[in-house]
Amino acid sequence: MSDRLHTLSGYLYEYQKSIAQPEEFWSRIADSFFWRKRWTKTLKWNFQEPDVRWFEGGKLNITENIFEKQLFTLGETPAIIWEPNDPHEASRTITYRELFEEVGRFANALKAKGVQKGDRVIIYMPMIPEAAIAMLACARIGAVHSVVFAGFSSTSLADRILDCKAKVILTSDGNFRGNKKIGVKAVVDEALEKAPVETVIVYKRTGQEVFITPKRDFWWHEVIEGVSSTNKAEVMDAEDMLFILYTSGSTGKPKGVVHTTAGYMVYTKYSFENVFQYSPGDVYWCTADIGWITGHSYIVYGPLLAGATTVMFEGVPTYPDAGRFWAIVEKHKVNQFYTAPTAIRALQAFGTEPIEGYDLSSLKVLGSVGEPINEEAWHWYHTHIGKGKCPIVDTWWQTETGGIMVSPLAGITPTKPAYATLPLPGIQLCIVDSEGNELTGNGVEGNLCIKFPWPSMIRTTYGDHERCRQTYFSTYKNMYFTGDGVKRDHDGYYRILGRVDDVINVSGHRMGTAEVENAINEHPKVIESAVVGFPHEVKGQGIYAYVICDMSNRTEDNLINEIKDTVSKIIGPIAKPDKIQIVPGLPKTRSGKIMRRILRKVAEGALDSMGDTSTLLDPEVVEKIIEGRK
Ligand code: WT7
């Protein structure tokens, strides 16, 4: 059964209802799921602690809502269509029945390896169906998955293993990306030196040589050999942990965002159906990686809960050429296509030639996620990909929100370039000024908060509840603070303006400036560093690092390359600074605080609007930084 809205007035009516009577509203939506036991209390909440519980008393398994509930009607329907990196390799179509069997089999294999309800399992895998099977198998037996993007370094992986005390890692021998074959198990081996686990299961994807440590490492195909596909789902409490996903914040190491079972399930399905207006038989494709929340909610859980056919792509947009996305749209007759502005801008740079000759007439809806989409990219997407007939859903949300919060409903909400438009039913947005006063009415700009719980919201940060409270619930009383700036225009439409904290968004990947600084500081010649974001044509934001170094025995170029390598090694290539400027000093206040405002201005080249520099300890340093600007 679908809870899809069909008209603008229907949306407005539902929205009002969802605000006036949230518990009744979400109860009705939740009633269409399969519960082992119905919940007793729809919502209990308190944003001070924070303590938020949805559907308490309810018992269920999310995979029973994907499989058992739908198999009768969808058994032979494709659940996943997988497109490999190499267009000459065959794609794979996995029906709901086949996926159910594979999930059951792997769930049994995990159990046989001693994985129990509540154990943490890290998934460090390429974009292959087995990654989704791994997630669902964990959910099936009540183990908590934590997917780590396979582009992260061994150090990042080790940090996450230690933080969540993982028992098992699921991985692959290697990963095909473009014309590269990348070692994956080798990275795991390195991480395990610092952060050991009991068991590693390795899927053979590239066939490259790997080290197998007896009694710890096992081949995927061997652990499932002869294993039954019949698996009885673990009965979970509504608020049992479903997964942990690490994300960057403005301070310290990445934190493990915790999502729980029932609320996440209800919200991802509901938002998927409504935003994308998915109809049975459609083919939906989200180009994200399962290492990010977009992959969790809108490649795996949302679409599969809605009985959709979801495309999974292993490769990159420019291999073998810049027409690959469009070749895939044509090949699988994709109806809904969901990607990031950075990908659109990267492809835009190749002009329209790579699109020519491909039949994109199957497309009905285009989606955007991860960062603000600039008007130029919006128009290019609309005109050249959507041929002017596909609505664009610019979806604003976060790892912490679990699902899409602000977005047009495709074909229903009138769109406006660069606007995420209106909140989904159940989402109570609030704009506040820096003192926390709510700015009411239209034509206002401020910090974006959410003042009422929604089912898929973050419950805690793993192992450190206080950090969750501090980060999201302490800035403004009784509100969840998103970290984003926002404008509500005269029509009441929302436009996201970007982060107002020390988080930068590089190609839709979230990065903490402190995290990058810590990595830079690991280089033995680095004395101090400061990192800021700057506008970047393709990536949205680039990383600009100001670094004070001991220059003995080094040329500037050498040092810059070494620092880039250090960051790549410690975090991963996605965190590599675009620009590194060696500076004699950093602009600091008398109390020793780095004035990032000034560094941001220099990085973006706004040299005439530097503002007041008189409170600086050493105002001359600014002159020198401007002179050496990259
Ligand atoms: C941050 C969250 C949500 C999945 C991918 C990113 C930015 C996300 C939009 C959008 C403007 C956006 C925000 C947000 N962001 N979507 N449509 N328009 N900004 O998840 O890694 O948790 O990052 O991405 O700044 O806070 P994430």
From TrEMBL:
<dbReference type="InterPro" id="IPR020845">
    <property type="entry name" value="AMP-binding_CS"/>
</dbReference>
<dbReference type="InterPro" id="IPR025110">
    <property type="entry name" value="AMP-bd_C"/>
</dbReference>
<dbReference type="GO" id="GO:0016874">
    <property type="term" value="F:ligase activity"/>
</dbReference>
<keyword id="KW-0547">Nucleotide-binding</keyword>
<keyword id="KW-0067">ATP-binding</keyword>
<keyword id="KW-0007">Acetylation</keyword>
<dbReference type="InterPro" id="IPR032387">
    <property type="entry name" value="ACAS_N"/>
</dbReference>
<dbReference type="Pfam" id="PF13193">
    <property type="entry name" value="AMP-binding_C"/>
</dbReference>
<feature type="domain" description="Acetyl-coenzyme A synthetase N-terminal">
    <location>
        <begin position="14"/>
        <end position="65"/>
    </location>
</feature>
<dbReference type="InterPro" id="IPR000873">
    <property type="entry name" value="AMP-dep_synth/lig_dom"/>
</dbReference>
<feature type="domain" description="AMP-dependent synthetase/ligase">
    <location>
        <begin position="68"/>
        <end position="453"/>
    </location>
</feature>
<dbReference type="InterPro" id="IPR045851">
    <property type="entry name" value="AMP-bd_C_sf"/>
</dbReference>
<dbReference type="Pfam" id="PF16177">
    <property type="entry name" value="ACAS_N"/>
</dbReference>
<comment type="similarity">
    <text>Belongs to the ATP-dependent AMP-binding enzyme family.</text>
</comment>
<feature type="domain" description="AMP-binding enzyme C-terminal">
    <location>
        <begin position="515"/>
        <end position="593"/>
    </location>
</feature>
<keyword id="KW-0436">Ligase</keyword>
<dbReference type="Pfam" id="PF00501">
    <property type="entry name" value="AMP-binding"/>
</dbReference>
<dbReference type="InterPro" id="IPR011904">
    <property type="entry name" value="Ac_CoA_lig"/>
</dbReference>
<protein>
    <recommendedName>
        <fullName>Acetate--CoA ligase</fullName>
        <ecNumber>6.2.1.1</ecNumber>
    </recommendedName>
</protein>
<dbReference type="InterPro" id="IPR042099">
    <property type="entry name" value="ANL_N_sf"/>
</dbReference>
